[in-house]
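Sharing in case it's useful to others searching the archive later.

Someone asked me privately for the predicted structure of Organic solute transporter subunit alpha-like isoform X3, so I'm posting the question and my answer publicly. Question first, with the sequence:
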Amino acid sequence: MKVSTMNCSELLHLNYIPTVWEVFDALGNIGIFLVSVTGIATVLVFAIFFQESIYLFHHWPRQQCFLTLLCLNTFPFAAGGFFISMVFPNLAETAKTIILIYLPVSLVVYFRLMINYGGGEKVILRKLFGQEMILQGPPLCCLCFCCDKPPLTRRRFFFLKCSVYQLALTPVLLATAKYIGIEYGIFIEGLLSPYNAAPYISVISTLSMMFGVYSLVIFSRIAAASIKDFQMTHKFAPLQANFLLIRLQI
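And my answer, the predicted structure tokens:
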């Protein structure tokens, strides 16, 4: 089957995936230029990551270096995944799934990194015990605008921790449910139906992201003062922006 013999609507209806050469032929000179620019940007992201990795390896404690690199590699990981899906359409769905599974892991690792900076879970909990929890934060700031500022307790810390950890578990479960749904014909993207699994998976994924990020924002605000020497607020901003932008795109 050649792309040129059929229009886009027919190809989408048949779920046809073009080959690499068909993609370049359809993109034309402007498309090839954009792909080249994207490739160069991807290489730059990898180069910066490797440069930072070498610096951290030689100057930071091993555990903090390992956790920091796990946070930072979400940038080359996502950049490489998007570039591969652009050039190789037959790998786009696989790349998207892998990105969705790995992306939240960086936020969980960031949570562990803050705890490590604070001296460990027991130490940082002892430092933060009884401090006010500021609930007015994204992405649920509008819903919690009038909420009180309850003190941090062991039970509330456990709830925050579970809410952050589920960011790593939920995408794996949802990806498994998605492929099972595709196998049995009950997962169809873009179809709003009570018998279609796609809307339910999308809603669960959104709720998981919202509560996970919200819990991480709450904890980062509480812990900011006790680990202020590490400038965690400046580190969290690009990580959170990267996570939210990619989640909105895919």
